[in-house]
Amino acid sequence: MKKIFFKKLIYLLSLILLSCGGGGEENGGGSGPVDPPPTPQKPQKAVLSKPENNTECLEVDAVKFEWNTAQNTTSYTLNVKNLTTNEISSTTTTSTSADMTLDKGFPYSWQIISTNSTSFVAESDKWKFYLSGEPLKNHTPFPAEIVEPYPGTSLNSGSVQLSWTFSDIDSNDTHSFDIYIDKKDGSTLLVENWGATKRTISLTDPGTYYWRIVTKDNHGASSDSGLSSFIILE
Fold first, then answer.
1. Which residues contact 78 (CB under 8 A, 6 or more apart)?
2. What does the buried/exposed string (b/e) look like for 195-204 if buried means 16 or more CB atoms within 10 Å of the residue's CB?
3. CA dist., res. 228 & res. 212, Å (int)
4. Could you say which DSSP state residue 2 is in?
5. Which positions ≥6 away from 105 have C-beta within 8 Å?
6. Quick check: 99 and 63 in contact, CB under 8 A?
7. Could you give the 3-state DSSP secondary structure of residue 176?
8. Looking at the chain, which residues constitute the CATH 2.60.40.10 domain(s)?
9. Secondary structure tally for the chain: helices H, strands E
10. N or C, which end of the chain is more exposed by having fewer CB within 10 Å?
11. Quick one: pLDDT at residue 70?
């Protein structure tokens, strides 16, 4: 009788435990599903502050660069390009400012690259400044920037529009442009003292064309855009 009594008691206790949930995962007693970590966001581009665009910089020692905080960004890379030599100087920081020692007497451009743990990057606008060290009466125009044809573009033969942009600290200066273009090295003068920032030409011979723009001011100072190229198809 005692054995039967104990078997019934064990059976009843088992039913009670099952009815109370017993710690099973279905009833929340175990570790439930875990929310996935949030998806990393792309970094946003920085907004530049100093040196201001198209200005003269009179820093005696190092140039101080400043920009605004960019969202979703853990580090910034400052790229400064000497527009005469095309040499690029870079530094990476977690701050929103950086100092850099540069050669005086040259025009520069600068840009901030925002990064984080993702594979994405965000590029700020490019600003230009002239590092003189002392005030100058006249500044060399900044090198022209090629707009079209975009470097490496393939075009049909016929009419081709060449266009570019430029800037100069000396807003009262007048400017003209020499256009060089050929299929070798961009050393052949097409037109001298052109007064606009675009010109349409006719090209019927297929191949790769190399061209550049020399910007001149009324004081005799000049700058070279550097070589660009495009392809005329057969």
1. 65, 90, 91, 92, 93, 98, 100, 110, 111, 112
2. eebebeeebe
3. 6
4. H
5. 131, 132, 133
6. yes
7. strand
8. 48-131, 145-232
9. 1, 18
10. N
11. 95
- Tens of pLDDT along 136-190? 788 899 999 999 999 999 999 999 999 999 999 998 999 999 999 999 999 999 9
Residue 98 has pLDDT above 70, yes or no: yes
Residue 34 burial class via C-beta count within 10 angstroms: exposed 0-12, middle 13-18, buried 19 and up? exposed
Q: What is the model's pLDDT at position 26?
A: 47
> In this structure, are residues 161 and 198 in contact, taking their beta carbons and an 8 Å threshold?
yes
Map residue 173 onto helix, strand or coil.
Answer: coil
Q: Please report, as a single letter, which amino acid is at residue 1.
A: M
Ordered DSSP codes for 3-50: HHHHHHHHHHHHHHHHHTTTT-GGGTSS--PPPPPPPPPPPPPPPEEE
Of 61, 182, 77, the residue nearest 124 (C-alpha) = 77
Instruction: Name the pTM for this structure.
Output: 0.72
Residue 38: both structure tokens together = 């949030």
CB atoms within 10 A of CB 220: 8
> What's 48-131's CATH class?
mainly beta
